[in-house]
Write a structure and sequence with these properties.
single chain; alpha/beta; 2-enoyl-CoA Hydratase, Chain A, domain 1; six-stranded mixed β-sheet; three-stranded mixed β-sheet; 9 strands
Length: 267
Amino acid sequence: MNLETVIYEVKDNIAKITMNRPDKKNALNHALWDDLIAAFDYADNDQEARVVILCGAGSAFCSGWDLKESYYVNTPAGYDRWTTGNALKTLRGLSQGYLKIMDLSKPVIAQVHGYCLAAGCYLEMLCDVAVAAEDAIFGHPATQSGGVDSMPLWVTYLGLRKAKELFMTRRFVDGKEAERIGLVNKAVPADKLEEEVWEMAKLMAEVPPDGMMIMKEAFNTHAEIMGRGAVFTYHRQLNALGRVGRAGTVHDLDKLREQSRGKQAQS
């Protein structure tokens, strides 16, 4: 398949989806997110592929959402501001994309190196298994502005206390600590990362496809019974509402804050 920002290739029944914006450390802009979803759709229906590896070109796995152009940053097409309606619609679409990756009928392994920040963590958590280089860097610096993250899996994987710690301090962790706290399955020396992931993928590819699909469906249904769908909905709703101020938009709320500061200065 021919995509602008993603490389898709298959070898030995293993598909590799490579995010290919190395000059931007694979920050997710509109094109990269759309291409990722298209690539996962294609992999789901690719009869040759039994396992999928998600990785990033260049020096990073994914440095987060592009702060100049992405679905989380720019107002939806056709609008000049965030409203409750278009924020909810946008976040619902992104959640559907997250769940499309998570519910892929084939196992997905994240191969993480370099920066894995914010949306990079989202992506690796959506994969069934994540293997990281020991010197990879994980975290969510955007939480400095407060509010609710739209990805609920932090608590699922880390537990409530550790998730609170990372979000409230905005602290970064390396691959070794990410393994220790459950953010990834395994951390290995950087020069062994590709080999480790490939060997794991080969083991998964040996399982008959129908049996693997049923196994994964059972695990994901178990997660759904435990409330996975509800927490995705809850987080995206609060994240969407956080984009809308009292006067109807985040922009308007910023203006109100500036006016308030001006009045305080005058007094």
